[in-house]
Design a protein that fits this description.
Elements lengths: L1 E6 L12 E4 L3 E3 L10 H5 L3 E3 L5 H4 L2 H8 L7 E5 L1 H10 L20 E5 L6 E3 L2 E7 L7 E6 L4 E4 L7 H7 L5 E7 L7 H7 L4 H8 L7 E5 L6 H11 L6 E2 L5 E3 L1
Parallel strand pairs: 3-4, 4-5, 5-6, 10-11, 11-12, 12-13
Antiparallel strand pairs: 1-2, 1-14, 2-3, 7-8, 8-9, 9-10
Helix pairs in contact: 7-8
Length: 254
Amino acid sequence: MKLRILGCSGGIGGNLRTTSLLLDHDVLIDAGTGVGDLSLAEMCAINHVFVTHSHLDHIACLPLLIDSVGFMRDHPLVIHATKETQAILKEHIFNWEIWPDFTEIPTLHQPLLRYELIELGETVDMGGRKITPLPANHIVPAVGFWIDSGKTSLVFSGDTTTCDALWESVNRIRNLEYLIVETAFSNAEKELAVVSRHLCPSLLDEELRKLKLDPKIYITHLKPGEVELTMQEISECVKNFVPKMLQNGQIFEF
């Protein structure tokens, strides 16, 4: 199983792309601006999108993806999301005002898009690739994902602040090899991190102290203009691990 990082920044500009991860060739984890770098053939091959939450940096390319390649496909794109996230997408994005409702196009019986419900702790088996929603604590309803190849596992926190339930779930994963966790703000912006339910380096340290395993840790969602500062603060704050910065284009095989 291969996971390719299409985007992992907290913003855009230059070569920065927002959150999107491509599992093998046919499954997206979030659909931020990194999706726009894929070719039409690569976009056409995507059959499933697992959405952590409804914020724009995680779904920006989802409407355009369906519009660009939907009519090239012979079956609908499936959005896997919680009940709350589905409701937000239906009300605020695919509502005929911001973008068409592709569950009705070209017909109700043969749509370009359909939804599948996901729930915390309930595993979706994608041909032996097991994807399980994990708890997260964000300003809107959100989840992370545990991706298990059967041999080893990767956890993606999505957007979250302090969340004991997340670490309780992660600590039960005995084959965990990789952990991708957000840190959106520097320590000087801790108050903003708390209000918006993100992490800063000092909060990340507090969270990682709850981790009883020893995976390779990668930091995502760094804000443009603060990348070097935030990573330096992480190196100073986090003592029990050596987190690395997640890179656009990075590939994990597990």
